[in-house]
Design goal:
By secondary structure, the chain is of the alpha/beta class. It has three domains: about 5-165, Rossmann fold; about 170-210; about 210-330, Zinc Finger, Delta Prime, domain 3. It contains 15 helices and five strands. Strands 2-3-4-1-5 form a five-stranded parallel beta sheet, sandwiched between helices. Helix 5 (about 125-135) links the parallel strand 3 and strand 4. The relative contact order is 0.10.
Length: about 325
Amino acid sequence: MALPATELISGQTKAKTLLARSLSNEKIAHAYFFRGPDGVGKRDAATVFAAQLNCTQPINGSACRTCPSCRKFFSGNHPDLIHIEADGAAIKISQIRELKKTLTFPPFEARYRVALLADVHTMRREAANSILKTLEEPPADTIIILTGEEAGGILPTILSRCQVIPFYALPYQQVAAALLLDEEETSPEEASSLAAAAEGSIGRARRLRKIGLLSLRREIVETLLKYQADAPEGVEPILDLAEQGAALKENLPELFDLLRLWLRDLIVAKVGGRSSLITSQDLQPLLAAACTRWSLSDLCQRFDLLVQAEKQLSRNCNRALVCEVLFFALL
C-alpha cells in the first residue's frame, strides 16, 4: 500500500487538516498563503497539495505517489508545477512578468497547474503590486501558492486575496527524531542540540549540520577552556578559530547563535536550573569544567559581548576582526 502523501510532511496537523478539508469539500481556493517559519515543511506541503489535486488514483483523499502525475510532481519534474524563488535577495518584477506570461497558456497535462512563489516576504513592492490582479483572478485551472515566514512584510492586499494556511515550529523532539532518520550520521546528542539551535525547523537544523557548526562550536569551547586569558600559547589557536569563523561568511551569525545558546546553558546550570533546560547536549561533558571556569557574572558579561558582536555583524563590520575580538574576550 502506498504511503499517504500527507505523511511526507512532519507535524503541521492544522495545515494538513485545512488542505484536506478543501479537497474533500471540493472548495479549492484560487490562491493560498502558507505562512510560518523557514524549514518547517511549507514547500513540501505545496508539492504534496499539487500532487493531491492532480492524482489519478487517490487513496483516501491522499496522492497515491505511483501514478504518472504523482511521480512527476514528487520528483519536481511536472511541467505544470512552476517554482518562483528569490533572484538574489528578492523576487523581482521581471520574474512576476514572466510568470504572468506563462499563465496565459493552459496547463500542459494536469487538471490544475500550480505556481509556487517561495519566500514572498522578500518580494519587492513593484513585484507585489504586479501580481495582485493575477491573485484575484488567476487563469482557469491555476492555483497559486505563496510561502513566507511572516505576514508583516507582505502587502495586506496580497493577504486579502489568499487563504492563509498556518505552519508552526515543530517540537524539538520531532526535529531530532527526523535528523536521526537521515542518511547522514548524527548522534542523539547532536540531533538534540541541532533541533534546539534551529528552534523547531527541520530545514534549518539540516543546514546547520551540513556546514558543520556543532563541531566548530565544540572546538571553540574546548579552546576557551584550555587557555587562560593571558596565556601567549593561546593566541595562535584563537586566531585560527577566528579565521574559521570569518570563512563562514553569511553563516557566521548561526555560529554566534550556537555560542549564545551554550552561554545560556551555562547560566542555567550556574543558577541550578533543571537539566532538561540544557539545550547543548553535545557539550554536556564540558559543562562542569565551564561552570568551574567562569562565575555567573563572567558568563553574563560574555553573553553581552556575544550580543554586541552580533550587532557588529549586522552593521557589516569586518568578520575576522569581530571574531578575533570576541574569541579573545570570551577566554
